Every structure is written in C-alpha cells, then in structure tokens.
Amino acid sequence: MEIIPLGHALGAEIRGVDIAEEIGDNTVAAIREAWHRHHIIVFRDVSWTPDQHLAFSRRFGALDDHASTPHERFEGYPELLEITNRPKNGQPSQSRNAGRNWHSDYSYTDRPAAASMLYCTEKPSVGGDTMFCNMARAYDELSDKMKGIVDDLESVYDFNLVSGTKVRDPEKMAELLKLNPPIAHPCVRVHDESGVKALYVSERTSHFEGMSRAESLPLIEYLCQHATRPQNTYRHKWRVGDLVCWDNRTAMHMALGDYDPSEFRHMLRTTLQGQKSGYVVAPAEY
Ligand code: OGA
Ligand code: MN
Description:
Number of helices: 6
Distance between the termini: 50 Å
CATH superfamily: Clavaminate synthase-like
Shape: globular
Structural class: alpha+beta
Order of helices and strands: EEHEHEEEEHHEHEEEEHEEEEE
CATH class: Alpha Beta
Bound molecules: N-oxalylglycine, manganese (II) ion
Number of strands: 17
C-alpha cells in the first residue's frame, strides 16, 4: 500500500489496494491510520457495484440509512445516497445543487456523520470539483484566547441553510425541515477515535446557542473564512471511478458547481454514522 499526499493541509491518495475485493484487518487498520492523518483519502480507478461500495464502507463502521434525507436514497439501497443533476422519474433531481456551501455532512441531525465515501460514476467534461478544508488545523491555528471562546460555544445547525433549498419541491422541503429541526452541537468536536479537536462551525450554522444571530454572525463568518483559507484546503478534480472518503469530524467540504449544468454528474455516497450529539433548540430569528 502506498500513501501519496495530495495537499499540504489535507488529502492523500492510496494506491496498491483493490478495495472492490474483501480486504484484511491489517489493511483496514492501515487505511484508517492514513485517513486520520490526512483527513481525506482518495482511491482511483475503482470499478464496483453498489454492494461492493457498501461492503467496503462497512469495514469502517455502521452505515447511516439516510432517514434524514430520504428523497436522495438510491433506489433499493437506503444506505446509498444519490447526488446528481440527472432527472429522476422525469422530475428534476432534488439533489442537483446539494453541497454548494461549506459544510460537514448531517450536522443538522442528532447523529452528525463520522465520515462519507463518495464514488463518481459520471462527470461533466470539465469541472464539478469538490473542495475540502482541514478543521483540526483551523482549530489549532486559533489563538489560545479564541480557542477558549469557541470551546464554550455551541453551533446551531439549521436545515434552511443547506444549499439548493430553492430548487427543492416545497412539500419535500417542509418534510425535511420537520425531520431536521435546528440542533445545537459543540462548536469544537472531539474525534471519537483519534481524540483530535476540530472546529465545528460552518456556513450552515445559524447562530451560537444563547446568542442572537446578529451577535453570532461576525464570529461564524470569521471562523469559516479562517478555516477555508486557500492554504488550508484541497481541491479534488474528479475522474470517473474515484472514491473520495472524507472525515466529517475534522474536515468540511463544498461542491463548487463549476460545470455546465446541461452535462451530467452522478455520485453515490455512503455515510458512516457518527456518535449521537446535540439537542433541539429554537430557530434563529432571521
Ligand atoms: C456530499 C457532498 C459534494 C459534491 O455528497 O455530501 O457534499 O461535490 N458532495 O458532490
Ligand atoms: Mn456533503
């Protein structure tokens, strides 16, 4: 197995493992170790079925069945999420503008995702890239005083701030808001496996619990800007057959949407279930 860094801040490619086939415990441990170190790991030229995608993912933990976003489930596979601009059943895809702001997956649920594994089956001729940033580094690089401030905050996540809400069917949107009421999580997330502390605030944070949105917004914006400085990012240029795995506990990501929407992009994602976290709170006053 070979580990080739792709970025200074985060990201590495893993070569020399056929992940479509059953892999041994030692290989799983080595991948996990590289994943903790680099936050994002990439496998190229993967050719597999949905069942193989599920089998590989399960080696790293329990999978979410996506009950929080049921409309994006891949037909017949509740543990696979379909992220695509391809029309579905003659209707425009509900997920076509998904992931277009900086976020960590399922932060608006009471089980924020531990990790996600996104597989590219179809891509536009140019663009359709995804960006990632290192939230552990973002936390480390704050001053001690600011660390003390964020250590005491709770970030409230609001489904209204998810991207692409305007292109969603209003009835489905109402259902999603009901399923996912605003929820407060610690603003600093401690990785349950590595113990690493990472900033946990995003463009989907409406406010800090106990503070107004007006009071919170300047700090939310500062922290997001601090975390997403170019030197703290990795930009992935997809190829068909790429599997990109990110750790949602220590990284944020964003779909750039830098492509011609008349061309098709199709991705399948598994989600590793995270620890239970947070409590439901009142929405921010916008
Ligand atoms: C996701 C996501 C980004 C992309 O699948 O969670 O945000 O580029 N995807 O499709
Ligand atoms: Mn996402």
